Amino acid sequence: MNDIIKAMKERRSIRKFKSQMPAKKDLEQIVEAGLYAANGRGKQAAITLVITNKELRDKLAKVNGKIGGWPEDFDPFYGAPAILIVLADKTCFTGIYDGSLVMGNMMLAAHSLGLGSIWIHRAKEEFESAEWKKLLADLGVQGDWEGIGHCAVGYTEGEMPSAAPRKDGRVFWLE
Length: 175
Description:
The chain is an alpha+beta fold. It contains 6 helices and 4 strands. The protein has a single domain (16-154), classed as NADH Oxidase, CATH 3.40.109.
């Protein structure tokens, strides 16, 4: 089995992270893997925000938890110190798909570097609010963007989860 397929089969969503920040060079490689995701018509219509600032990360966690309806002390990012937020250009009709591929590439890249990751939703709702739209504007990001997801990244705390058995009846051959 080649390394890419092996990584696809072994990668798991991590729900407990160490507080140690991954090395910047590792985060850069993860983001770069996202930049090389397949995308419709070569538009490259997804962007990534890399949040390593603890104060901003914790503020985002509170907003995300509130949207999700969790208790105020729940961390929807499971302690991951780095949050990579993928957004897609709303004017690009393949934007949601393109952003989803960015997320997949980044999670596989994290795994290949010995880091854990998990896709956390509610970026869509966050970036519909004036506060997070202002963050984009402050960064000089122009246009209308839709949040696709958060790739929470860090060092795994504890054992790597096992894969659930694959369900039967999901592949149909037409030969």
